[in-house]
Amino acid sequence: MDKLFLKTFLSKMMEETLAVQYWDGTIEKYGQGEPVFKIIFHQPLSKKEILDDPYLTFGEAYMDGIIDIEGGLQQIIEAISRNTQSFLHKNKLLSKIVKMKPTSIKKAKEDIQYHYDLGNDFYKLWLDKTMTYSCGYFSNPNDTLYDAQMNKVKYTLKKLNLKKGDKLLDIGSGWGTLIIEAAKTYGTKALGITLSKEQYAKTKEKIKEENLEALVDVKLIDYRDLAKTNEKFDRIVSIGMLEHVGRANYPVYMETINKLLNQGGVSVLHCITAQNERKVNSWSTKYIFPGGHLPSIRELIYLMPEYDFHLLTIESLRRHYAKTLEHWAANFETQLDKISETKDERFIRMWRLYLQGCAASFNYGTIDIHQFVFTKGLNNDFPMARVHL
């Protein structure tokens, strides 16, 4: 019965020709011509589990070595994604009135440390030398990963229209590249905040190496706790952090920006977005980003007027993130010997699926990434034209 179900399920999964080798050794082909991809099943999968949650079932099966892929993992996920009738497009829409429990500060800290405290040595193997773990910006096809990350940092700082002496806050400051660049280029007094002990320690080290202690600092603190200090900033940036706060905390995030940002101040919010209000796939929240949720564009824009935030620009960086992830995935594969010294095969397959699956999703899936630039109240000193970019 399970094999019969799988045959029906797999035959409709993509337009490209697919070969499937089942656990009994039989091989079947779906489509015309030579197969582009091959899926090898080493043992059966449960029909009930696939119907209940195909993301989790296939994700765990790949992690556990129950299935193998020939033809490229990213490429097969892209092929499935191009078929709008596949399960990758079937995430349930969230009700407009669904009640979601806010993420506590304690839980947020645990979730962040689960992902980001795998160790600086691990991330150093496949990130660029800036240790920037977010979408790059490719000005031309020949940009290296390092070029793209520095482009992104400089482009984002230009969007903030920084002036010497401005106070800048970076919420979710990673390994500190942006706050250090802001101080060096603009003479900005910059503060980064993070919940990752590993990122905090490395950023402190980099600030000292650059002799920027007078201008740059980093704190191990939640954004909500920082707001309680009544400290104010002229500019606030957040890159790749909102995805971790949880849907119920989007108004909390906006209210916190309102408390921290001076009147007329400028904020850049850079985050992964979904086309609609959807549940995040359960494999990702179980193994990669616990507590994660992707906002839709309209959810975020809907909240802005509540705090007198005026939207200036919104820009999609979707293709830039796909290319960034392809760089990371390639670097990851070249470092397998070193990674396998501390990580087991299941972890390696999990991260391979995460990196290549995300690249595929940005190329052909239902997720995007945007930068929103907005001001608190009206700001008539902000450049009318975009020549500063």
TrEMBL record:
Superkingdom classification of source: Bacteria
Keyword S-adenosyl-L-methionine tagged: yes
Family: Belongs to the CFA/CMAS family.
Span of domain DUF7884: 5-92
InterPro entries named among the record's database cross-references: CFA/CMAS, CMAS, DUF7884, SAM-dependent_MTases_sf
Pfam family, one: CMAS
Name under which the protein is recorded: Cyclopropane-fatty-acyl-phospholipid synthase
Keywords assigned: Lipid metabolism, Methyltransferase, S-adenosyl-L-methionine, Transferase
